[in-house]
Design a protein that fits this description.
Elements: E1 2-3, E2 33-37, E3 41-42, H1 49-67, E4 71-79, H2 83-91, H3 96-113, E5 120-123, H4 127-142, E6 146-156, E7 161-163, E8 168-172, E9 179-183, E10 191-200, H5 206-215, E11 220-221, H6 223-234, E12 240-241, E13 243-245, E14 254-255, E15 258-263, H7 265-270, H8 272-275, E16 292-296, H9 300-314, E17 322-325, E18 328-330, E19 333-334, H10 345-352, H11 354-364, E20 371-373, H12 375-397, H13 409-418, E21 420-421, H14 425-444, H15 447-468, H16 470-473, H17 479-503, H18 508-517
Parallel strand pairs: 2-4, 2-16, 3-4, 4-5, 11-17, 16-17, 18-20
Antiparallel strand pairs: 1-21, 6-7, 6-10, 8-9, 10-12, 13-15, 14-15, 18-19
EC number: 6.1.1.10
Keywords: Ligase
Protein name: Methionyl-tRNA synthetase
């Protein structure tokens, strides 16, 4: 019995895309451009696995946009001002800029080692950033949103932030046994500070911020973080202290026209997302505002409350989406140097290879919930998914013994769309629908969920091979058996082709090499080519150009 499958291009319609919807907010960019930002990392310590996760997640989103034909911008950099840096440099007996450079270089090295396609790397000590921040400050002053006044509150040096009475608690410090005051949100110690500084009229933007979040359900993801932001907003906002006395903080950008004050480090840092696109713009921005801003959940308040309020005050468009990911634990415990459970991303890349560790970090990383890091789990993911489910499927079906005729697969796919044998119908239907289902998850930034669907398809393909026994079919010397053999091989390698295209944002090198082994042209590796049967070329066998090395070498043994 034969089953008619939906023709190419009319699979079930996907819901409105979350990352890629067309409803941009007052954006000056066009539909073919996509701007992703990473948070700029604070240079008070070396990179850890959490930084690596942020880097790879942002890069995955950027590469996914490119698969859909977007011209992309991915910004990254280092945040180098503030009292914490000033004090750390003093303890190290180093000039602050020299102190910052050694760590900034290390973050840049990690981005390179991660194979992240960073287009713009900014340091807040760059001269053009000084100019951008000064201009931004003057705009806020001219528009009447900054004033000078006395400010008192609980200040955490580690967080570079003031906290209200309701945001602190008195307790015993577990490490010292001393009683003190601590920020509830971050757990950092605080001290009471009273000083004259400049303040931003944050409270005036409370209602507008609530309207923005409630009117754009997808603007903050995941929902738990959106609800967290709404909770902050509805409980009330106080005006924000946006400068520090120069007598206390010298390492930072001076307040324009007032050399006795230094601009608050978070105002300075947030402006970087505009600086990298040429702010203040001579005409209009090329990419700004960001389409997706990737941040850790610990800096959500700065990006989902302060940043949009500052943009509103400056008359600039708001980010289209803020993706606040969870953190990493080890053995379900928070990573810390004192516990000896901190993961060095450079060591992980060297041990497992960049694509395997990228795969693990995205597959197991948490968006709403924290991910738990385990060396054993890295190996399990590599061996179970990449080696056994994907690599082995490709290897067994591309063996010389079975002699898959890749040049005939275009014709095979057309025939299968019209009349799929009942032995193949379930797998065929799965492949027709797979791109839509995966895209729904990828559009949310839930790449782990999307990859679960992809590897479900590889499981189905492996079962299909086992049930159809191509190693027995190949022994039969008749045209009908040969035709059946090529259909069986087509389905297995079609799964590999579609999976490899979809996995390019996560494992770009391995996925690219898999597609090379299938002789898929580089022009046929876009998201649109994930449609069932797309991308195979009707050519003679002599035109098939594939790598000579065995496909098994793509996924070598890792211990």
């Amino acid at each position: 019995m034969n089953f008619r499958i939906r023709p190419l291009g009319i699979a079930a319609r996907a819901p409105v895309s979350r990352l890629f919807s067309t409803g941009r907010q007052l954006s000056s960019t066009t539909a073919d451009k996509f701007y992703v930002t990473q948070p700029i990392f604070y240079v008070n310590s070396v990179p850890h696995i959490g930084h690596f996760y942020t880097i790879v997640l942002a890069d995955t989103i950027k590469r996914y946009a490119e698969l859909q034909g977007k011209r992309t911008k991915l910004s990254a950099g280092t945040d180098e001002h503030g009292l914490k840096i000033q004090q750390a440099a003093e303890r190290a007996a180093k000039d602050p800029l020299e102190f910052c450079t050694q760590f900034s270089d290390r973050f840049r090295d990690l981005m390179k080692a991660s194979n992240a396609g960073i287009t713009d790397f900014i340091r807040t000590t760059d001269p053009n950033h000084y100019q951008a921040v000064a201009h931004f400050w003057k705009v806020l002053v001219d528009r009447g949103f900054i004033y000078k006044g006395e400010h008192s509150g609980w200040y955490a040096v580690s967080d570079e932030a003031f906290y209200t009475e309701g945001q602190v608690e008195e307790r015993v410090d577990a490490s010292t046994g001393a009683r003190g005051m601590f920020a509830i949100e971050s757990g950092q110690s605080v001290e009471w500070v009273s000083e004259v500084n400049y303040k931003f009229k944050l409270a005036e933007f409370r209602n507008r911020l609530i309207e923005w979040v409630e009117g754009n359900p997808d603007v903050i993801y995941p929902e738990i973080r959106r609800n967290e932001v709404l909770g902050w907003l509805k409980s009330g906002l106080e005006d924000l202290s946006v400068s520090r006395p120069r007598s206390r903080l010298q390492w930072g950008i001076p307040v324009p026209d007032d050399p006795d004050h230094t601009i608050y480090v978070w105002v300075d840092a947030l402006v970087n997302y505009a600086t990298v696109d040429g702010y203040p713009w001579a005409a209009k921005p090329e990419f700004f505002p960001p389409d997706v801003q990737v941040v850790g959940k610990d800096i959500l308040r700065f990006h989902a409350v302060y940043w949009p309020a500052l943009l509103m005050a400056a008359g600039l468009p708001l980010p289209r989406r803020i993706l606040a990911h969870a953190h990493w634990t080890m053995g379900s415990q928070k990573m810390s140097k004192s516990k000896g459970n901190v993961v060095d991303p450079f060591e992980a890349i060297q041990r497992y290879g960049v694509d395997p560790i990228r795969y693990f970090i995205i597959r197991n990383g948490g968006i709403a919930n924290d991910g738990d890091y385990s060396s054993d789990e890295v190996l399990v993911r590599y061996k179970k998914d990449l080696v056994s489910r994907l690599g082995n499927l490709a290897s067994r079906c591309l063996s010389d013994r079975l002699a898959a005729k890749l040049a005939s697969f275009s014709a095979v796919s057309q025939q299968q769309v019209e009349h799929a044998d009942e032995r193949d119908a379930a797998l065929c239907a799965m492949l027709v629908d797979l791109p839509v289902k995966v895209k729904v998850q990828f559009d949310l930034g839930e790449f782990g969920r999307g990859m679960t669907l992809i590897f479900d398809a590889t499981d189905a393909a492996n079962k299909h091979v086992t049930c159809n026994e191509p190693w027995n079919i190949v022994q039969k010397d008749d045209p009908e058996s040969e035709a059946r053999l090529q259909v069986v091989l087509f389905y297995s390698l079609e799964v590999v082709r579609i999976a490899a295209i979809m996995l390019q944002p996560v494992i770009p090198e391995k996925a690219g090499l898999l597609l090379d082994h299938l002789a898929i042209d580089k022009a046929d590796r876009k998201w649109s080519d994930t449609q069932f049967g797309a991308g195979w070329k009707n050519t003679t066998g002599s035109n098939i150009n594939r790598p000579r090395e065995p496909i098994a070498q793509l996924f070598p043994k890792i211990s």
